């Protein structure tokens, strides 16, 4: 049975692992300000970061959770995944390798 490159059916692992991975990566990009604030606080606070960085940690969690619970964001990431999967099924080349520059002589 050949796979339809443009097929929309998602396997369990795609729904529960691969798409959420894309969501985490994109959410971290969209919450980059909160990530930077939390990282800076942790570096500045050292061992006391658990106590001193609660505000920054809460802001980061709030931002990430807002993205994780947004159905439109899930659909956006799902469509991105389906596009990458379709391209892989057509070419046989993973996105990461396709985006790397070809060596020049």
TrEMBL record:
It is found in: Mitochondrion. PROSITE patterns: CHCH. InterPro entries: Cyt_c_biogenesis_Cmc1-like. Keywords: Disulfide bond, Mitochondrion. It comes from the Eukaryota. It holds the Pfam family Cmc1. One of its GO terms (cellular component) is mitochondrion. The keyword Mitochondrion applies. Its main location: mitochondrion. Belongs to the CMC family. This is COX assembly mitochondrial protein. It comes from Mustela putorius furo. The lineage of its organism: Eukaryota, Metazoa, Chordata, Craniata, Vertebrata.
